[in-house]
What does this fold into?
Amino acid sequence: MTTNTASAADRTNEFPFDFAPQPTQDADLLRQLDFVPGLKEILTVRQVHALEHATVWVLSQSGPAAARADNQLLGGMSTDEGFYLYGHVDIAQLRQAVGEALHRIAGGEWDLAVHPRCGTNLSVAMLLTAGLAVGINLALPKGPILQLLGLGAAAAAAAQLAPDAGSLAQRYVTTAIPFNLSVVDISVSNDFWGREAHFVRVRWVE
It folds into this structure.
């Protein structure tokens, strides 16, 4: 992730999408497949997830160095109603960051949708490790030494592939550019497990 202040147009050209996200793509899909149960919630969560990542990036980049939120200490969880943000951050700073994040990401800075500490990366790493381990187990002779060597090779290969694979999964599966989101309010709330966090509530707009 870069931290420069290049224009939205410049950053659009930098983002490695095979195609440019269209502002109406999710709304059009929802109109065509409105009979599919849960589709709107899925589309909303993907957009909220991208806004969550963009907000964390903005918080870690904006303002004087002494006042920046520590990117390593911030975490989030997305729902179809908004996202929880965990970590120490001033609510006024958060309001400004969310507005800036939504403006920038919808304006073309699509790389803000991807974050290296997203849970998607961990899930992809686990799937890669399991898949490669099973494949090697089936391909190699059943001797314990070869099997152990194979498992080690699977783990090493998964570690190498996971960052890029996780990034791709975020871009194309677990996030979507929040063209249809509007911020309703930001409050301090408790999540499903009773943990206190800031909650950024959003609504779907056509």
In short: The beta strands are 75-78, 82-86, 181-190, 196-204. The first strand starts at residue 75 and ends at 78.
